[in-house]
Amino acid sequence: MLSVFLEVLRRDLLLAWRNRADVLVTLAFFTIVACLFPFGVGAEPNLLRTIAPGVLWVAALLATLLSLHRLFAQDHTDGVLEQLLLSPEPPVLWVLAKVLAHWLTTAVPLIVAAPALALLFDMTQSATMVLVLSLLLGTPILSLLGGVGAALTLGLRGGGMLLALLVLPLFVPILIFGAGAVDADLAGTGAAAHLMLLGGGSLAALALAPWASAAALRIAVE
Amino acid sequence: MLEVTELACLRGDRMLFADVALTVQAGELVRIAGPNGVGKTSLLRLLCGLAQPEHGQVSWKGQRLERTRERFHREALYLGHAAALNDLLTPLENLRFAAACHGLGVDAGRCELALERIGLGPQRDLPAKVLSQGQRRRVGLARLYLSENVPLWVLDEPFTALDVAAVRDLADWLDAHCAHGGMVVMTTHQDVPFATPMRTFDLAESAC
């Protein structure tokens, strides 16, 4: 049963490696969006420190969105999705493997790059730690919910735009709690509550989203 | 055995066919015939559970498909129009992945043999994007050489883009499969010489 999960994960990671320009584009997008803000709002350190959590979270969110439509699109056109749906193993397994591969290849590079960008905004060390933690706990929700959106818009004309309209509103709570965690740390009230909510959200998404994605994929292939 | 009763297929607003009844017994080779657009591919997709029928049911070994999905997917192989290849992977990687997803549990050695058998030995480590149409087709068909224990083969135009020798070899392999009690349901517009008596099911008679 685990073999399908591992095979799909291995294949998607291998494909991400062979197509690594895509991964770099996402990372470059994240960096550039974050770097644009100081030009727009001015280089006043206090102001930058205040807006940093929100800016980095919005940039991470948009960068994730940029890569989401690729999650199932190629396999859909190639016919691999049909074959996966005909596998004797439950679809939830390989959907989860694909989402995990997406998280590893898009979110993890963002999380690694985030501390460097936090430095640019002159964030304190503890705030940077909280930012990384909040990204670590929050980005799985982006990949999981985004997976449902990607599956629902699969094969539609203008699917990419529709995907953004569909999932961005759903990402609002994650943005609030993610950026809120850093703000709470800066205000001295402690980020634990925010981080726990993000962790809980991740677990809930992990339990529910793969089923929804699998059902949507079945409809898309039909 | 595969049994289809009162099957109807709706495509958009149009009823493609209705009241299709078909039984495939072990050792049978069935060809679905009919002009373009009559719904041959749609029928094959209904047979293997990729689509839901508007009416009627498909059963496998006496059980409705929805009830026996896992077992049916283990015992059926569907090769569609698309070759199910990723351009960035080599034929060997593509074949191993397809076999693993189907739960065939075959090792790299068997996959290499299957690729050699279908005439892709020298190309097995090239990325699939440099292959020709016929060669891409063959990578998909190589799965047949790993699936002799899968009883039901549902093949959509398996002979397209193949050269004469490959067509003959594939026909022999389908014959061998039927001789061992397998079942083959396929569509083709080509006249292929089979040793097994071929039953032709004309879908045009059920068209709406």
Automatic annotation (TrEMBL), chain A:
One of its GO terms (cellular component) is plasma membrane. The keyword Transmembrane helix applies. The chain crosses the membrane at residues 21-39, 51-72, 93-121, 127-154, 161-182, 194-217. It comes from the Bacteria. One of its GO terms (biological process) is cytochrome c biosynthetic process. The keyword Ligase does not apply. It is found in: Cell inner membrane. It is a multi-pass membrane protein. GO terms for molecular function: heme transmembrane transporter activity. InterPro entries: Cyt_c_biogenesis_CcmB (IPR003544), Cyt_c_CcmB_bac (IPR026031). Keywords: Cell inner membrane, Cell membrane, Cytochrome c-type biogenesis, Membrane, Transmembrane, Transmembrane helix, Transport. Required for the export of heme to the periplasm for the biogenesis of c-type cytochromes. Belongs to the CcmB/CycW/HelB family. This is Heme exporter protein B. The lineage of its organism: Bacteria, Pseudomonadati, Pseudomonadota, Betaproteobacteria, Rhodocyclales.
UniProtKB/TrEMBL annotation, chain B:
It comes from the Bacteria. InterPro entries: AAA+_ATPase, ABC_transporter-like_ATP-bd, ABC_transporter-like_CS, ABC_transptr_haem_export_CcmA, P-loop_NTPase. Residues 2-206 form the ABC transporter domain. GO terms for molecular function: ATP binding; ATP hydrolysis activity; transmembrane transporter activity. One of its GO terms (biological process) is cytochrome complex assembly. Pfam families: ABC_tran (PF00005). Keywords: ATP-binding, Cell membrane, Cytochrome c-type biogenesis, Membrane, Nucleotide-binding, Translocase, Transport. This is Cytochrome c biogenesis heme-transporting ATPase CcmA. It comes from Denitromonas iodatirespirans.
